[in-house]
Amino acid sequence: MLLAIDCGNTNTVFSIWDGERFLCTLRTSTHHARTADAYFTWYSTLVKHYGIEADITDVIISSTVPRVVFNLRVFADRFFGCRPIVVGKPDCLLPFTPRVDEGTQVGPDRLVNTAGAFDRHGGNLIVVDFGTATTFDVVAFDGAYVGGVIAPGVNLSLEALHLAAAALPHVDISKPQKVIGTNTVECIQSGVFWGYVGLVREICERIRGESGQEMKVIATGGLAPLFQQAADLFDTYEDDLTMHGLTVIHRYNKENGAP
């Protein structure tokens, strides 16, 4: 079985893939000092709790936090006896070659999202990922990542607003009942929700304009379901797009003889 690990700036996700479906998905906060033993204690406790019997033979890792990769490598080697595939490293094969400026290092999360989206939907896509940052990944007709956009994430913007303006409270984001707020919380929620709706819609339209063709918009990430409530913002929402992309890259490496 495959253990797919996606380590983001805020959360780390472990999913067990049996070749046909994900048996379970486990989440923890990302912490660069967490040791291999600590990962295994957390992982084995939850797997036992859910009654999952998983004989892990392969591990693949995508991490936007470089400092956690070493301990995750040790975790895979020590407890599963395997050398993990790490997306973005030279020995990890990709089913596409990114077409970006020479010397540009594309984030592994964007490579994984591209692979997962193309496998499910074909090319000419815009993948909007609502994570710590809100990213837009442009997937060409042949599955190649050809660039994108990075904007501050929703929760990051809320936190910055709270920290920079002492009189403004920290609020949870939700879709407001009306645009014009009649109290401070409603005003902030309206500004953030409708502001990001406008941001997503405008950026996607400009990407389509530069590409000169229609492109399907795929949403993923924790807050994507919230913004899906805005009519016609996305064509579809994929809650497991990143983890699916990891299985696609893992399969490609196995089929092409990667170690």
Automatic annotation (TrEMBL):
Instruction: List cellular component terms (GO).
Output: cytoplasm
Which cellular compartments is it found in? Cytoplasm
**Could you tell me the EC number(s) of this protein?**
2.7.1.33
Which residues does the record give as substrate binding sites? Answer: 107-110, 184
Q: Which UniProt keywords apply?
A: ATP-binding, Coenzyme A biosynthesis, Cytoplasm, Kinase, Metal-binding, Nucleotide-binding, Potassium, Transferase
Q: Which GO terms describe its molecular function?
A: ATP binding; metal ion binding; pantothenate kinase activity
Residues involved in ATP binding: 6-13, 132
Going by the record, the broad EC class of this enzyme is transferase
Q: In which pathway does it act?
A: Cofactor biosynthesis; coenzyme A biosynthesis; CoA from (R)-pantothenate: step 1/5
According to its UniProt record, which residues of this chain constitute the active site?
Answer: 109
Q: Which domain of life is it from?
A: Bacteria
Which reaction equations make up its catalytic activity?
(R)-pantothenate + ATP = (R)-4'-phosphopantothenate + ADP + H(+)
Q: How is the cofactor bound?
A: A monovalent cation. Ammonium or potassium.
TM segments?
none
Positions of K(+) binding = 129
Q: Which cofactor does it need?
A: K(+); NH4(+)
Tell me which Gene Ontology terms the entry assigns under biological process.
Answer: coenzyme A biosynthetic process
Question: How does this protein assemble?
Answer: Homodimer.
**Entry function:** Catalyzes the phosphorylation of pantothenate (Pan), the first step in CoA biosynthesis.
Q: Which HAMAP family does the protein's record reference?
A: Pantothen_kinase_3 (MF_01274)
Its family remark reads:
Belongs to the type III pantothenate kinase family.
Q: What is this protein called?
A: Type III pantothenate kinase
Q: Which organism is it from?
A: Cribrihabitans marinus
